[in-house]
C-alpha cells in the first residue's frame, strides 16, 4: 500500500534518498542542497512542501513541490528508490495515493523505462516531451548583423512591462495563460535568474524579440527565446541566438543547453544549424 506522509524519522534512509536526487533525474533541483543553503527560519518553511512516499510502511522516496498557480504545483525534486524489485512491487500495488487530489502536480523527468514505470504507477501521466540540446562554446561567434539590428540587456525595475508584452506576443496560444508583470518580478527573484543575461533584440526602433540565460541545476540554459510573430522569417532568431552564445562566452560559460518541443521542427532546425546536438528526451508528467 502506497502512502504519502509529511514526516520521516529514518535518518539513514533519508540521507541515501537525498544523495540519489541527481542520479534519479538530473533535472531535479536537489532539496537537501537548497535546504542547507538557507537560514534556519526559511528551512522550516521549506519543510512544509516536502512529502515522503511509503510503501507497506517503509519509506521509499520523497518529493519537494512548489505552488506556481492556484491548485497547480511544480515538483522540483522527486526520488524513489529505483531498484528492480521495487518497481515490480509498485506495479502490483493497486491503491493509489490520494494526496495528489489537492491539485495539478507537474514534474519534468529524463525519459527512461524505470522512472516511467514508477511515475505511471503513482498515477502520473505523460502530457508531453521536450528535447534537450547542448552546444560547447569554444570561440566567440562573429556576429553578422546589419546596422539596423541592436541588442540590449534587460534592466530590472524598468523593462518588466516590455518583456511581459514581448513574451505574450511571442508565445501567444489559446492554451497558455498570459504573463503578468508579477510573473516577471517573480522570475527575477528566483535563484536561477542571472543579472545581465536577459537580452532584447531591436530592429530600427522596434523591439522584435527576447531571450535569456539562466543557471539551473548547475547548468546554463537559454530560455524564452523568440521573435514576435510579425517579424519572423527575417533571420532575427539566428542573430539573437548567436548574441546569447557570445554573452555566454564573455561570462566564461563552456556549455549551454536549450530545450525544444519535439514537434517544433522550425526551432529544431534553427538549433541544429547553429551547432546544437541532441542529448536526451525530457518527459513532462502530470498528476
Automatic annotation (TrEMBL):
<dbReference type="InterPro" id="IPR016181">
    <property type="entry name" value="Acyl_CoA_acyltransferase"/>
</dbReference>
<dbReference type="InterPro" id="IPR000182">
    <property type="entry name" value="GNAT_dom"/>
</dbReference>
<dbReference type="InterPro" id="IPR051556">
    <property type="entry name" value="N-term/lysine_N-AcTrnsfr"/>
</dbReference>
<feature type="domain" description="N-acetyltransferase">
    <location>
        <begin position="149"/>
        <end position="287"/>
    </location>
</feature>
<dbReference type="Pfam" id="PF00583">
    <property type="entry name" value="Acetyltransf_1"/>
</dbReference>
<protein>
    <submittedName>
        <fullName>N-acetyltransferase</fullName>
    </submittedName>
</protein>
